[in-house]
Amino acid sequence: MQSTATLSRSRQRPAASALLELLKPVTWFPPMWAFLCGVVSSGEAVVGQLGIVVLGILLAGPLVCGASQVVNDWFDRDVDAINEPQRPIPSGRVPGRWGLYFAIAWSLLALAVGVLLGPWVFAATVLGLLLAWAYSAPPLRLKLNGWWGNAAVGISYEGLAWVTGAAVMIGGALPDGRILLLALLYSIGAHGIMTLNDFKSIDGDRQMGVRSIPVRLGPARAARLACWTMAVPQLLVAGLLLYWGSWPFALLVVGVLLAQLVAMRRLLRDPRRFAPWYNATGVSLYVLGMLASAFAVRALVGAGG
User: Fold this and answer.
1) C-alpha distances out from residue 170 to 40, 42, 58, 176, 253, Å
2) What do you get for the CA distance between the two ends of the chain, in Å?
3) Helix or strand or coil: residue 128?
4) 47 by DSSP, 3-state: which?
5) Alpha carbon of 98 to those of 6, 21, 27, 92, 93: distances in Å?
6) What is the pTM for the complete model shown?
7) What is residue 280's predicted lDDT score, i.e. its pLDDT?
8) What is the CA radius of gyration of the chain?
9) What domains can you pick out in the chain, each with its CATH number?
10) For residue 181, with 0-12 CB atoms within 10 Å meaning exposed, 13-18 middle and 19 or more buried, which class applies?
11) CA distance 278 to 194
């Protein structure tokens, strides 16, 4: 039978399941997908580099993105106590300062893996983690300003992951300019995705002084802005693909954009209600367009075009 002291110590340590919940596996998909798009767009064969690709995907998702989620939950614990008190830290399932220690340890683990993948990936890992901590932690706490905070996440989750995936495949060199341009455009579009993600915490953000886009503009205007921010970069991507002579892939991007526009009509009827729904449907279409454009550049690079 356990002693009272042993039971007390066990309650002071978080369960592994609570720490995994802090890492939020559901959020790993965007940077992992963007990294994969970078791998595809590089034009290089994956055969012979599969181990590097898998390690890079793990770095982009579970490690760097996971670290950013822990950092965010630690510094958002007061807001979460209002919006989502069932989360691991405000609920007490991750007690004391365990959340902070876990954020630091997981960031160091990401840096260690980044070193293994070479100087370019290590530099990208450092930048990604700096953006993650700047987004959530004082004194910068970029998330207090929805314009800057969403930009930091869009660059980190989409553009940086995409460029890193391409650079890994070509030995750390600077990727083709078309890859850089597509990564930039999809990063801008991700700003709109992050705006929709902020709808779930409007009430707590208002109380805690977090000036997210929905708080600043109100749900209706913020939703319209998010739609424009997602749609215009995709339209530009389609135009670029046409200009580069890759019209089949341009049509694919236009097709997924049209499907998003249909979903956006429903979103705009009641943004607070339908924002989570759109994040599960419209965003899925958005990332399909990313992959289509990555294959387009792959074909162009491979053909020497």
Assistant:
1) 11, 7, 19, 10, 26
2) 72
3) helix
4) coil
5) 18, 13, 21, 10, 10
6) 0.90
7) 87
8) 20
9) 14-302 (1.10.600)
10) middle
11) 12
Structural contact between residues 225 and 198, judged by C-beta atoms closer than 8 angstroms: no
pLDDT at 305: 62
Give the pLDDT score at 11. 58
For residue 200, what is the DSSP state? G
Structure tokens at 291: 């992959």
Phi first, then psi: give them for residue 145, nearest 5 degrees: -115, 110
CA proximity to 65, closest of 18, 19, 103, 15? 103
- Using alpha carbons only, give the angle 100, 104, 107 rounded to the nearest 5 degrees: 135
CA-angle at 204, arms to 201 and 206, nearest 5°: 105
Residues contacting 193, CB < 8 A, separation 6+: 154, 226, 230, 279, 283, 286
Q: Where do we find the tokens 């008190």?
A: 85
Question: 85: which 2 tokens?
Answer: 């008190």
Residue 28 burial (10 A CB sphere; 0-12, 13-18, 19+): buried
The reported pLDDT for the residue numbered 160 is 93
Cα distance between residue 56 and residue 226, in whole Å: 30
Nearest to 278 by CA among 290, 292, 260: 260
Mean pLDDT for each 10-residue chunk of the chain (305 residues)?
40 90 94 96 89 93 96 92 91 96 98 88 92 94 93 93 91 87 97 93 84 95 97 98 96 97 96 92 94 96 69
